[in-house]
Amino acid sequence: MHPTLLGPDLSVLYFFNSVLASPFLDFLMPLLTFGGTQAFWVILCLLLYLLGGEDEREAAFMALTALVLGFFLSEALKMVIARPRPYEVIGWVRHATVAGGYSMPSGHAVAAFAGFISLYFRLGRPWFFIILASLVGISRIYLGLHYPSDVLAGAVLGVLCAFTALKIDERVKCFGLCRFDRLQQN
Predict the structure, then answer these.
(1) Any idea what the CATH number is for the domain that residue 148 is in?
(2) How far apart are the first and last CA of the chain?
C-alpha cells in the first residue's frame, strides 16, 4: 500500500476498531454486517419479489443484478490486489471472527451499496438506504476485517454496480416495450 494512504487508513481503523469499542457495539456490529451477506440479499430480494408489487419486484431484479455484478468484480479485484486483512498484519486490531480471502475491496460494502442503492432507485428513501449501507461498511471496519479504504472502494464499486443494474433494467424494459410496439404495428 502507498505510504500516504496508510496513515489515514490506520487512523480511521484505530478510531472505529479501538476507540469506539464497547460491549454494545460488540453486540450490534456483527448484526449490522449481516446486511452485506449474500444470504441477506437473496432472502430480501425473494421476499420483495414474492410479497411486493411491481416496484418491489423491479427493485429485487435490480438489486440481484447489481449484486451478481458486484460479487464477480470484487472477487476479481481481490485476487489482483491481494491485500491482507488488517487483523492479519496489525497486532492491535481487535477481531471477533476470522474472514477468508483478501481485504480489498470489501465484498460486504460492495453488496450493501449495490443492493441498497438499487432499492433506492426503485423505492425512494435515499438517506435511509445510504445510512444502512454505510452502517454495514462501518461494521466491517469496527470488526477489524477491513481497512477504511477497502470499504470505500467497495462502496464505490457497489454504487457503480447499482447504476449498471439501473441501465440494464432500462434496456430490458425498452427491449420489451419496443418489441411489443413492433408486434402491435404488424
Answers:
(1) 1.10.606.20
(2) 61
Examine residue 13 and state whether it is found in any structural domain, yes or no. Answer: no
Cα(122)–Cα(139) distance, integer angstroms: 26
Looking up cell 460492495 gives 110
Has residue 104 been placed in a domain?
yes
What single letter denotes the amino acid at residue 98?
V
Whole-angstrom distance, CA of residue 36 vs CA of residue 83: 20
Domain enclosing residue 80, as ranges? 19-185
The angle formed by the CA atoms of residues 155, 1 and 153, to the nearest 5 degrees, is 5
C-alpha cell at 5: 494512504
Average confidence score pLDDT of the chain: 86
pLDDT in tens, 50-69: 898 888 888 899 999 999 99
d(CA 97, CA 103): 14
